[in-house]
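Usage

Read records sequentially. Each one opens with the input sequence:
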Amino acid sequence: MEDYMKNVTIFHHPLIDHKITHLCDVNTKTKEFREIVSELAMLMGFEAFRDLKTKMVEIQAPLSKFESPVVDEEVTIVPILRAGLGMVDGLVSLFPNAHVGHIGLYRDEETLEPHEYYFKLPKEAANSTVILVDPALATGGSAKAAIDCLKQRGCKKIVFLALIAAPEGIKRVMEAHPDIKLYAAHYADAPLNEHGYIMTAFGDAGDRIFGTM
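and closes with the structure output:
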């Protein structure tokens, strides 16, 4: 295994594989596509955050008092606009008290390089676990730029979730930021086309989530 893959986790689960298949199907309509993106984000979050810090608190149950664990970690969810918005609700269902920031990036159609047009984080972000989300990790340009922005604003613990990741994108992100953790629901070992899209994926996730095909 390459060194840059040591903090990369690719999920292998029949339910996740099943949902990825429907996500990539051109016949999957907007409503179902949006629902599957949210469901996958929740499934990934459940698996990816097994190591969250907890603390013991005393509760009054119907029959007695006893101590039980609760999560003791601040979480900030940051979607890369606009496609990343589709993954927010699934994660908020796991972390209802999470803060939410936004990063807006657009891609130059000729160079395929990202350009920032919007960035807003809650003040708690720098001292929290930041969950950066984007459905597709293709060239890796947007993800790398987003992580650059987060680190420049003082964020230290960053976890990146992508539904589908290409080898080029994984390598670019992890070589630039080996300290982050990267999770992908599916590894697309296929070439990118001339526009930087993964050939064996779902096309433009933003267009399919928001019905702007």
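Summary fields computed downstream for this record:
- The first helix runs from residue 14 to 24.
- The first strand starts at residue 8 and ends at 10.
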